[in-house]
């Protein structure tokens, strides 16, 4: 409720178009829905923007997940994105809807209820190695469900720089780039130095020994000398896809 | 040199418009300039985009800094941005140019040679506390020199959430937001949950004890539950300003 | 034995109401009970205050747990609280008593032998997300068995600040607040800034990547800018519930 | 503004006792004061409770500190507590007020404008060693200015347990205890096991080598086996004093 | 393509021996092969040097591994080395070739298609204990497949220095030495001080407690006082074997 | 071979009592035995002192363990101590000897072939809690097999200091003390301050959250304020028992 | 007060040889002395054993140090050992006594008031390098003042193992050994494997980069494969000397 | 002394060409020189190979440094290399020799007494930035004094990959490469993937925030995907230069 709406609302109170009691309730009422006593769906963004509803499944019981998704199905008509969903979660969700599609590499369930219109400009998603692909796919599927055109360029790590340079055309035509890499995590720096668009770096827990489950890649990316690069949490493909989508759709490309 | 330029270039070779020897040189020649044997200026972005030349002063000797800036002054007509510049660096730079302006809170020297045209949309820069202001100013001055309209909202940390909520109008009208915070670094999460635009979180080394010079804030920001948030290095105001500028000017707002 | 009791005791020795030998034994005797050679029950608090006996089950064998609980059952009439108890422990305990109740989310067994009288004032237990609920329940059940009125407010993380603000009435009416959160752990700071009562922050190991099993939340909470906040160990719901109870019952509310 | 006040306020709007425009302003107006563009004083707690105004000086310039204190002096009549204040800060503050008192061990400036009424019950502040005293004094002065009776028991570290046991009478008569210790930080555990009142443990950066500037003591305290113990940041004497005061004054002792 | 080749190539363009279009393709074409969209084989080194093709199996699916190896088998005649290969991977690979040999301690599959000619000079591989042998064997098999004579000297840790000194003859006759050790990782320092040849130290994750899965050994090796020692990642037997081979074959010993 | 023996030996060479060739062999021959190419038994201490042979089983294959023990059985008549031995290892060892005894809490196999004569003076082994007992038993069994009288005092953690003080008589009569504790690891400091004999502190990985698998206890013990305390690796019961035995038997008590 | 003394004491109460009031005082009185409110001297060990009084100067003000030493001088006749004493502290102490001797490498002040009788058996103190000598000297002077014969063997690091082996005679004749080393800290392991006496390892903060101020050496020493080795805090020469003295004098060598 | 020399030596004893006493001495005598009681010069390598004597100055007093260098000057005729030498050290050394040359960027003093013959093949030393040059120069001067031809290629960090690719000719003609980089430390990976010669990666402490004084670069380098890369300690230019020299001169290039 912005200033103008607030003014209009208070005038309605003044004019007795709205009773004081319902005004009190209205001011207390906020845009979310309680489910049992264990969760609160945030309708905020979805209602306004046609964004999909999102549920992060890891650490939640099957009952809670199904409870939340049932409520989402009941409440609106937006698409639903369930991330960090195991096969077992998918099978459970299938019991309450016929429309769930499972992206197993990405560990994402999509329940599509609305057509998705894609942006003209691309988000490019790159990986350093083959083992980084699951995190990259989490980013890719997220970005696609959010309405972005996505291009993939996998296994182009910096230790074989010619593989990356061979695809400079693809790299230079992207509007936003997501660099997914484990081990030494240098992909973001090299790519960030080649392009003039925002780069989102995603460290992955791929590696062994002194990779410390992604810490080496994380630190490397945070210390990137390439301007225009920012970083999300280790293995956070969803966050990268979501952020890239926000950026890609800014200033009118949707 | 893209595919078409390469084709055209090779046709010139074929038609003997360019000699083989100068073609060899041309293909070897890349867009940077060597200064002594200690630095290479990267003309790449500046030439193409009217971006300012940037020099990171920390860890460089006064001689090296002046050598690099002299070359920049000689080579082009872009603005020059010298970051992490102490008062002493500024005084040294004043010996080679009359046009240097020093932003002492931001520790930035700007040598302005071209008019800066500002974007219509704002980058909002927020801080959790008063002590985070120097890093915020580094981001602010960087973004301004890069041609962005910048709004400042300082000392609105989450431990006094009403101070932040009182300015929701400013927060909700920004196109990109930079959240600068030390200590528990929760500003990014709260802001990220309130808006639908990209948020860049900058942890600062402000704090003591278990803040570990910004590590607490960094981890907090990387683990933000708010989608659309990405992170840069501790105290990296420049990186945040640069990334925010890239995002703000994407898709045509310049 | 305080100074007055000591004086009285020594006078009894002097007056030969107590023999020297039994006085020696008395001074050596301390209020705990040995069980086999593997454990010592501390009767101290329980005897004096009607506090429940507490046993931390994690890392103890079923035999040891049953041995200790048997002794507790035999020795006194207080309630018994067994924390970090798996389903398997519960089943084992059922063999020696019919009165065990299992709170599976909280992983607590309660053997109730005395009526529990509740305080008039509330301990409020809040969580940032759904996955933090088990730790919150450990705190809640602990506080309840210790005789406190407990209110729950779950899934009100700071990335959706309106969900939290919508319940300001509940938050502001609590006497002590426990904030349970993983990820960026900022709940404690925001709540601590809203209220004037003690806040106990419990970091949880919920999260992934750079959450480092609760370290990010722990550091965030230790660095809270909100005065009046203190912190317990990662996932230490019991400790939070126990401390909150001590505080809630101080100065006469029992 | 609680529910009833809100209702009353809206009825005033309805009855035209308040104009819509001033109602809009009122709803937007929140209880803090802006000083220049660098700080916001939070009048919230102070106004309501007679709490002192608090300013954390570390990392702030002398100008900013004096600016903030001037505003505090102008705005209200509460006492003012300036923590982490160097001698230099004190001398600067003396230029704007004659009433500043400097506690040099505690590094605190107090500007007393109101009589402080002490609680009947004590906060006991203990240290492991002599070098922990500055942090303990920060806690002690804070608690005293907040209106608490404070008892000090210094240099009673666990490696000489008889020194501590010799003062059991003092320890057992406290209402809240603050344990300040560096090195192995075990004081909190031992004391926590002896008493039935809340213990706030403050790790200090005292020590060398593997004390890692207080990390060893911090971890030790977080892992305390003694129930009823919670922890604040390394060297955070102010936080401990403030929290202890909140607890000590709970349920009516003021 | 070096300078001379480039000159020659451009002359061919000029002389129309090569068409502009195929020249464009040629300049864009780089020496790797794409497999599906998940991997790129790097033919670079193998083609030039008769090096074996290498595939790191950990974190790759059986399908991907077989897909990559099939392509390798099809493309060239070099030997193939598959590292971090489980028994299960081996069995899967057996379905596509009869020539796979499995070194189970080393977890390496070798598909030998060319005779391996051994160097005259030795690489010596030493371990501190018996539990370090798997990593040592990874190094040993790698070095052997790359064409080196390899000598093994196992279980000669520094806590029994006489065992090591008893074999000084073997140690002093090596051309390159690989020291594989967990726990305190001191083998590299002692050996490095005894010889005048390059020593490659490999920390292993062998140990417990404060070995932190190899961190203790890694730090110990990085801090070695013995000049001429360098270090690879924890458990990185392959990297050590590969580096040692490069060094051993330098300046003409092949 | 000491100086005198060397002199005598060289005189034998001179007098041709020993041939040059066998002298060469003798000087090269060192007191250990090779088993296959995977292990070397160190006969050194055992031969000289009647110490038991020791084998650390963790990380070794059953074949290697049996190979080493067979050789030990064949070579000498000393007792054999196999530490970190699982039940499975014990069952495997039973196939090659009838004399193996398994201490399951301590995870130790003892093959007793010689009578063990106990010291007059005691090693006292204390634990903070019940869960620390397995590590304590590893120390206890080790010390006993090495010929020491051992006393146990378990579950006397510092959070219930009276339990510990109640047994001051036992504590003060020990010759060497081993303190085994996880969590905050303060036992060593308290005990070290009470006695005048060497204290060996063993941190255990018992705990959760910020205990970081024993790091909290380790740091606490390293920072102990009590003089006379030294520390071994996390969970290293064997090392503590062995060191305590060395100390206990020093200066003639055997 | 042991059991017999307690009995005797109680009989005195009974027989009215001691009044109840003075008995109460006696039981409360413990063997330490308060100095102002900032320190408590522990007379315990000194009174009983002729041990020197010890004061750790680091982090204490000159006034406090002089206050404590004055009291020590007044109370007894034992020698006084002031560790971590700067030159400035020494000069300050000279104002209150003429008998202070300053060991500048060791940073120790000794005030000798009693003859020191040396043990027959040696403590050997070794260092890895020249830069470790100050810590070694702290251990050496401590051990000497405590009445031990001390031998020094410096700069015998493992990277030049022959330097160490050349002095096997000295090493093998020691009763207790202290190994002081920074960098990779391997000295303890090598020495521990050579001897049958207790080894105390002292990591030093000597080194740079990944030595992390002694952490590398500390971890290396904790992970030593040599039985009989225990560790003290980084740079804790005093602790090593004190522990070694306790061990050296055990079982009657004094 | 190898087997043949030992045989010959024993025959001399047998033939009484050497007396038993001097034989005893000979066997005890090892190739190093003691200086006072604080240092031992290791003549080992220098005597045999014409290697320079090396002294690491950091952490040594001026007296010790001059003492050691004086002895070196007296003992042999090799060149002397003093690393980590401040200007102050240089001035002190000038008092005992006229031949000292100071390389201030490298912080190295060279005392040249013998002609240095350079290898035909090059060691190439690269840096990521200008601030890494001091460490690179330490490596360069070390390698040159050890007799290697050295090429420098500075400021070619991966964030401007074209700067590096422009010099592929230089990179590909090196025999050994040293990559010196701070921040994200990715230079080693990119270069390692481009060449077939050994790469030694040197992390530097250049950077800020999450570079953690070189830890980010160190981890990045240890996790390099490029085979043939090994790593030395943070800022260890000397170690890199020494190792590179060993490798460069292997198999006969000297």
Automatic annotation (TrEMBL), chains A, B, C, D, E, F, G, H:
SMART domains associated with the record: AIRC
Residue ranges the record marks as coiled coil: none
Organism listed in the record: Sedimentibacter acidaminivorans
Superkingdom classification of source: Bacteria
Pfam family, one: AIRC
Domain PurE stretches: 121-253
Name of the protein: NCAIR mutase (PurE)-related protein
InterPro entries: P2CMN_synthase_LarB (IPR039476), PurE_dom (IPR000031)
């Amino acid at each position: 409720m912005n200033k103008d709406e607030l003014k209009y609302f208070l005038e309605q109170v003044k004019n007795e178009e709205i009773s004081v009691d319902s005004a009190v309730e209205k001011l207390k009422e906020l845009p979310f829905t309680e489910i049992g006593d264990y969760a609160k769906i945030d309708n905020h963004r979805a209602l306004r923007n046609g964004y999909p509803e999102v549920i992060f499944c890891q650490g939640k019981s099957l009952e809670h997940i199904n409870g939340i998704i049932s409520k989402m199905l009941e409440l609106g008509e937006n698409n639903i994105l369930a991330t960090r969903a195991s096969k077992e979660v998918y099978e459970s969700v299938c019991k309450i809807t016929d429309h769930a599609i499972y992206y197993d590499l990405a560990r994402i369930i999509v329940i599509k209820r609305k057509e998705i219109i894609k942006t003209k400009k691309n988000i490019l998603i790159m990986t350093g190695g083959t083992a980084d692909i699951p995190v990259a796919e989490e980013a890719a599927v997220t970005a696609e469900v959010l309405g972005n055109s996505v291009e993939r360029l996998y296994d182009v790590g910096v230790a074989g720089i010619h593989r990356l340079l061979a695809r400079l055309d693809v790299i230079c035509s992207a509007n936003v780039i997501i660099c997914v890499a484990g081990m030494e995590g240098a992909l973001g720096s090299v790519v960030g130095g080649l392009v003039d668009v925002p780069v989102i770096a995603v460290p992955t827990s791929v590696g062994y020994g002194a990779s410390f489950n992604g810490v080496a890649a994380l630190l490397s990316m945070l210390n990137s000398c390439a301007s225009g690069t920012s970083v999300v949490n280790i293995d956070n493909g969803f966050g990268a896809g979501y952020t890239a989508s926000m950026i890609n759709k800014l200033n009118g490309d949707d």
